Amino acid sequence: MFRGNSNGTTTGTGGDGIGGKVTVFSGPQYVDAGMPEALHEAGVPDSITIEMVRPPQQSGSKQQQLRTAINAKSTDPDLVLTDNGWTIPFIARGDLVNLEKEMSDEFISQVKDEGVQSMIETGMHPKTGDLYSIPAFPDFPTIQYRKDLFRAAGYTDSDFETWQSNPPSWSEFTEAVSKAHENADAKYGHVWQGDNYVGLACCTFNEFLTSMGGAFFGSQENLFGPIGERPVTIGSEKSTDGIEVAVDLIHGEGSRRRTSRPSPRRRSPGGSNPTRSQSSRAGTRSPSATGPTPSAAPRASSRGRTWNSA
Questions:
Q1: Strands 133-138 and 20-25, how do they pair?
Q2: What does the pLDDT look like over 251-305, one tens digit per residue?
Q3: 3-state secondary structure at position 69
Q4: What Å distances lie between residue 189 and 4, 125, 185, CA to CA?
Q5: How many CB atoms lie within 10 A of CB 169?
Q6: What is the 3-state secondary structure (H, E, C) of 129-166?
Q7: How much is the pTM?
Q8: Which residues contact 120 (CB under 8 A, 6 or more apart)?
């Protein structure tokens, strides 16, 4: 949905009475991929000029730049592509347009019925349930592994099939990776996303945390609120166990004691359990990621990008 900017985008000289400029705050991949042309081909009138803003690549910097613009009461941007993990704070502050007041009931129902439900939930007001964002695409984090290296360590196709639907515990995972690594001419065993950046907190750490039964706010039922009233449980024993798993994978101390398994209800396409490796995403293979899918199923919502009107 497009909202008017300082030039008044809802009036103009186009054949359908619509004209002006729409500013889109997205990622550089959209700027470079010809998004304005794609939007015009999809039905946006040619009388509307689409101006793409190239924000910082890093998600945290992108969020801060958007917050600065909103706090300064800037009229731009009109349309925003956000990580769905930080959509609700913008909704709670009243920074985004309530789409249910601007779009048809038929369109809202279609989005809610056909969209990825966990992403739909992150785009809804935590109190009213009104929709403020539209899912663009989800991320399905996985771990890719070298079957040839695991076969050389004694694992078979039967093991690979089992891991797809019944992922190993962390202790089983580390044992399997150790065997494969010791038998292979490989520099690394398990490579994962451990850099000091926003994804470590919202993705990787959350997967370690929830795989051990820990949580930021007690349970999944508290995930979206009520904001300011949820119990803070990040210091619980189970949450600490999740942190220790990450440390163990780096330093090797105590990792074989970890035995928790994930909830079976979340699966990514292809049947593997959604975890994330540093050097690979779903559909790719990394030669340095030599581990089977570990038990790190996140209980939080699927990560992805959503479109919002600012």
A1: unpaired
A2: 765 444 444 443 333 322 222 232 333 222 222 222 233 333 333 322 333 456 5
A3: helix
A4: 53, 43, 10
A5: 17
A6: CCECEEEEEECCCCCCCCHHHHHHCCCCHHHHHHHHHC
A7: 0.64
A8: 111, 112, 131, 135
